[in-house]
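for the writeup, i need someone to sanity check this before i put it in the appendix. the sequnce is what the collaborator sent (i think, or maybe the updated version? ugh). structure was predicted straight from it, no edits. if anything looks off just tell me and ill rerun, i have time this weekend
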Amino acid sequence: MSSFLVALLAALSFGAPHPVLILTSYEYGFKAPDTVRSGVVTVRLVNRGKEDHQVVFLRLDDTTTTLRAMRTLVENKIRTTGAHAASGVEYVRPGQANETSIVLLPGRYIILCDLPGKDDRAHVSKGMLHALTVIPSGVASDTTLPTAVATVRLTDYHIALSAPLRPGTRLVRVENHGSHRHHFMVARVLHNATLAEIEKWDGKSEPAPIVTIGGASALDPGYASVTTLRVTPGRYILACVLQDSTGAKPHYMLGMGTETVVR
């Protein structure tokens, strides 16, 4: 049975409106098909590893080869020419799973995890990437993303949420209206931490002031996705922590960070 058919049957069994592409992450790689059909897919990332993982879908254009792009990514370059970020699943904790619906156009892709490890090296530099070919579905591909309860508008450098989040499992649309690559990270605030304490946190020391619960991974300008958030009452930080170049300030330090309260 083909990988696509397995994903399609999984989608039907869960009552999902689009095929579900199930990816499994571990240290340091993915269990993933080599070929999928074009259209809207709900990417479900299941983390079987011991570290946090993500999956970013990069669509390659004709200016690069798959081998060249993969070599550049492993060399931990912050930008790879000829690769366009089409979003994916952000921050899945060990033993958990998160979903994001994205539009896959026919073409060549690389999926990767760019989160830093305990040694501060990005997982992609350790070989956590996988080549993927998206083939035409044979019919008019569905490019309509699922209906969401709220929209997150990403610009340079601001995050705007169209409606308050309510407790429960919520679909949130993420759109990049800026001129730079952005992502959407959602973190729950712990221990009544102040924003000043969160900004000073080094990302490692305990107790941590926040715990990341999900979001949508990197999107280039003009791209959109719909991510699934499971939220309970409390304070949350919405942020983009990407950089425009090596040594540049993370976007949240330029204004792409905001707090919201779920009631």
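Confidence is low (pLDDT under 50) at residues 1-15. Residues 181 and 220 are 4 Å apart (CA to CA).
thx in advance!!
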